[in-house]
Amino acid sequence: MEIVILPNTAEVGRLAADQIESLLAGKAHAVLGLATGSSPLPIYRELEQRYQSGTVSFARARAFTLDEYVGLPDGHPEQYREVIRKEFTDKVDFDPANVHGPAGNAAGTHYACQAYEKAVQAAGGVDLQILGIGTDGHIGFNEPGSSLASRTRIKTLTEQTRRDNARFFDSLDEVPRHVVTQGLGTILEASHILLAATGANKAQAVRHLVEGPVSALCPASALQLHPHVTVLLDDAAASQLSLADYYRHSFRHKPDWQKL
Ligand SMILES: N[C@@H]1[C@@H](O)[C@H](O)[C@@H](COP(=O)(O)O)O[C@@H]1O
Q1: H/E/C letters for each residue in the chain?
Q2: Any ligand 1 atom below 6 A from CB of 141
Q3: CA gap 63, 126 in Å, rounded
Q4: Ligand 1 nearest atom to the CA of residue 201, by list position
Q5: At a CB cut-off of 8 Å and minimum separation 6, what does 29 contact?
Q6: Residue pLDDT, tens place only, 5-58
Q7: What is the spatial distance between Cα 27 and Cα 82, in angstroms, rounded to a whole number?
Q8: Pocket of ligand 1 contains residue 161 by CB under 6 Å
Q9: What value of ipTM does the predicted structure carry?
Q10: Measured distance CA(92)–CA(84) in Å, rounded
Q11: What are the angstrom distances between the C-alpha of 121 and each of 20, 64, 82?
């Protein structure tokens, strides 16, 4: 796990966009794992600018999103399918037919989840997965207590996550109680995982993710088991890390030939 502490969110966006640009330069049909929430927005803004200036194209890329609310009507502005379209894929040259998400309203949820897993595998798996982290340590919507081997399935949100996400809805009552999310086992199959976290409200979750024990109590800590994870932080999100100075030092002295 590589910890990169950067001065601001724009730098987080730039460094992540560098990784995605170089992936697509070598593999135009690469599979991206896309996340919602505010943490990936600087990455999407940066990629949008690079697309406009002609340095990157998503025309042949494919994408799978992490999760979806259950029970929101199709077209609801907070459906993650809509959010990812508005915030990113519609702003670049992504073919809408190549952007997939788990179904939050399928009649047979269990079978729809299995079909989603198969679709990810049929695409050859995710080359680069973007992640944020919830204040309770969730990734995707894998709340505390999630099996480290879990697959795409329905989950019940914690009240903490519902309160955190209420800012996107008119009231807390409107935040769905259930979601469909890729499992931790699913996420861990991506080749490279880029997790972005900024702001002091993420500091505790980041400490548990990076330096805590691997535990279902902090689902993001499962990333310690993955061979290629890059954690992009600002100073505030890194403020509770006991080895922050070492992470800064090793990034400053990274050999030129060594990629993220
Ligand atoms: N399901 C999403 C997560 O994928 C995201 O990481 C988390 C944090 O969001 P934010 O980046 O807005 O803090 O929010 C939601 O719960």
Answers
A1: CEEEEECCHHHHHHHHHHHHHHHHHHCCCCEEEECCCCCCHHHHHHHHHHHHCCCCCCCCCEEEECEEECCCCCCCCCCHHHHHHHHCHHHCCCCHHHEECCCCCCCCHHHHHHHHHHHHHHCCCCCEEEECCCCCCCECCECCCCCCCCCCEEEECCHHHHHHHHHHCCCHHHCCCEEEECCHHHHCCCCEEEEEECCHHHHHHHHHHHHCCCECCEHHHHHHHCCCEEEEEECCCCCCCCCHHHHHHHHHCCCCCCCC
A2: yes
A3: 8
A4: 13
A5: 60, 61, 62
A6: 999 999 999 999 999 999 999 999 999 999 999 999 999 999 999 999 999 999
A7: 27
A8: yes
A9: 0.96
A10: 12
A11: 20, 11, 24
Report residue 105 as tokens.
């309203």
> Which token pair is 82?
């809509």
Q: What is the pLDDT of residue 254?
A: 87
Contacts of residue 219, defined as CB under 8 A and 6 or more positions apart, other chains included, come to: 137, 138, 139, 142, 143, 144, 146, 148, 184
Please tell me the residue having the least CA distance from ligand 1 atom 3.
Answer: 140
Among 36, 65, 87, 194, which residue has the most ligand 1 atoms within 8 Å of its CB, making it the best to mutate? 36
Q: What is the pLDDT of residues 161-215, one digit of tens each?
A: 999 999 999 999 999 999 999 999 999 999 999 999 999 999 999 999 999 999 9
Reading the block at residue 5, the tokens are: 């502490």
Tokens for 257? 């030939």
- Domains in the chain, start-ordered, CATH in brackets? 2-252 (3.40.50.1360)
Strand partners, 104: none
pTM: 0.96
